[in-house]
Design brief:
mainly alpha; Helix Hairpins; 2 domains; globular
């Protein structure tokens, strides 16, 4: 029977790759140089989940999760070498966060509904992130997020602070107005910048609706594209 490696052994392998006698390519990596690979691996995990759902074959998902885990280990190893933090610090931090955010599991609290639980989850996160103004919360949304994800998070935070309306009537009115404005901009074939601006407004209004109902616009569009490609076969 083949040996099955443990998490600690994988940790040791990464440390060896980064050691003085390790691999020159691995030793040359930095947090910045690994950014693209980390994003790519996360997307590949998402694709593997879709493939697993379709085929019921877990092999690729298992492999891609391993590749994503490797990124976590590499970033942690680099941080440890720079005396910033260790892998144990990462594990401790996320364990404490999960316990803190689930008082109904690890504490004495109970909820009467999923909505109440979600509201408390949001309050706990707000406490963790400190006292931020609404504009600071918006600026804190990572610029590296895909545009649809960033747009939806911005809309959700803006509605939470009542900077924009969360009513169906207001959101649908915004969507209709943005589509009309987009149609008018499309008629002016010379002004591409105006069309781009109006297209952005229409897309943002759609993500407002997605935020209101808790539907991930990025996933919704991805599934539609997949369906469209299949329909075109």
């Amino acid at each position: 029977m083949n040996k099955q490696f443990t998490f600690d052994e994988l940790h040791a392998i990464v440390a060896a790759l980064r050691s003085e006698n390790g691999c020159p390519w691995d030793r040359a990596q930095t947090h910045e140089s690994l950014k693209a690979a980390t994003i790519e691996e996360a997307y590949e995990v998402n694709q593997a989940v879709s493939d697993y759902t379709r085929t019921n074959n877990p092999t690729n998902l298992k492999e891609e999760l391993g590749d994503l885990l490797l990124q976590v280990l590499f970033h942690s190893q680099i941080a440890e070498e720079n005396a910033a933090f260790t892998l144990e610090d990462v594990i401790d931090g996320v364990a404490r966060k999960m316990i803190r955010r689930h008082p109904h599991v690890f504490g004495q609290k109970s909820y009467d509904s999923l909505e109440e639980q979600q509201a408390d989850w949001d309050k706990i996160k707000d406490v963790e992130h400190g006292s931020l103004t609404p504009s600071e919360e918006l600026r804190a949304i990572p610029a590296a997020f895909p545009a649809l994800i960033r747009s939806q998070k911005a809309a959700k935070k803006a509605m939470k602070h009542q900077l924009i309306s969360s009513s169906d009537e207001a959101i649908l009115k915004s969507m209709l107005e943005s589509v009309v404005a987009l149609q008018m901009a499309a008629a002016d074939t010379e002004d591409k910048s105006s069309f781009e601006k109006k297209l952005g407004e229409a897309l943002f209004s759609i993500t407002r609706l997605a935020a209101k109902y808790g539907v991930q616009s990025e996933i919704a569009l991805t599934r539609k594209v997949e369906d469209f490609i299949e329909e075109m076969q």
